[in-house]
Amino acid sequence: MRKYAPSIALFAVFEAVAIALWLAKDNLFYLLNFTYIGASVALGVGLFIQGNKNARRVTQLLVGLYMLVYLGLICNENMQIEGFWYYLFTGVFEAATIHYAVAKIFGPLLFGRGWCGYACWTAMVLDFLPYKVPRQPRKKIGWIRYLTFAASLVFVAGLFLAHVGNIERIMFWAFVFGNVAYYAVGIAMAFAFKDNRAFCKYVCPVTVFLKPMSYFSLLRITCDHDKCIQCGKCRRVCPMGVDMLDDSRKRENGTECILCQACVRSCPKKAL
Ligand code: SF4
Ligand code: SF4
Ligand code: SF4
């Protein structure tokens, strides 16, 4: 049972958030929502501990589909960055703001870009594509993320400044079309750059939050240099181009690690 301690600890963290929000907001939804997400994450970690190769994908599908289909399409919650701005402007600390605070702004201080590896519904689809490891050198076009970030903010601010009516309905359709656009651009970029995660590296506006916060992440991949034989297998399987052999926070692409564990699984010496 001891080997499942990380799985149980993660579930406990989510459950603490679930109970705190349930009591603070007097809303059972938060208890059920974070319990479900915590159970999905704990299941994935438990499967990983058992050596199951699909562990991460199981969590990714359980959480990603729940957020996209149930919260987004059925409950009409815009869980994309536009939804975050929308709730922020209305001054309501509800679904999208809480989601961003937990998964994308403060959570990364603890679990880095775990969201990107285990929960994001955009990457859930992109990870099915054939280029799991980039086949081309990284491009210097990461500045695009700041444009998409600004565009999302300007779009929602514009709706408020123009006093557009029925913004809630507009936000629902923004969620639908926004996701269609993300998938279309993400899939096109994956094939163009021969890299499933090209969208994550260059375009995704959420990384404007994720990258600086995950720099300080408590949970990170480090290398036991006494065990490492410098075979380089780990670096060859990393989808994000992280130099996981360098333990410093300033390592190459350090804020890109999605904790997918591909490097850990590939290491013949269990040095990571
Ligand atoms: S970078 Fe953006 S699209 Fe990629 S996994 Fe993270 S949140 Fe999702
Ligand atoms: S392969 Fe390792 S370093 Fe690269 S993203 Fe996955 S966990 Fe992070
Ligand atoms: S795969 Fe393991 S042994 Fe090989 S370089 Fe990476 S950490 Fe070192």
Helix content: 55-70%
* Strand count: 0
Compute the number of helices.
Answer: 14
Chemical compounds bound to the protein = iron/sulfur cluster
Rg, Å, rounded? 19 Å
Report on the biggest sheet.
Answer: none
- The parts where pLDDT drops under 50 for at least 5 residues are none
Q: Could you give the distance between the termini? A: 22 Å
Strand percentage, roughly? under 5%
The tally of structural domains comes to 2
Query: What would you call the quaternary organization?
Result: single chain
> What is the general shape?
globular
Whole-number average pLDDT?
A: 91
Order of helices and strands: HHHHHHHHHHHHHH
Would you tell me the structural class of the helices and strands? mainly alpha
Can you characterise this structure?
By secondary structure, this protein is mostly helical. It has 2 domains: about 55-130 and about 140-215, no CATH class; about 220-270, Alpha-Beta Plaits (2-Layer Sandwich), CATH 3.30.70. It contains 14 helices and no strands. The longest helix has 27 residues, at about 165-195. The model has no long low-confidence stretch (mean pLDDT about 90). One iron/sulfur cluster (SF4) binds near residues 231 and 245.
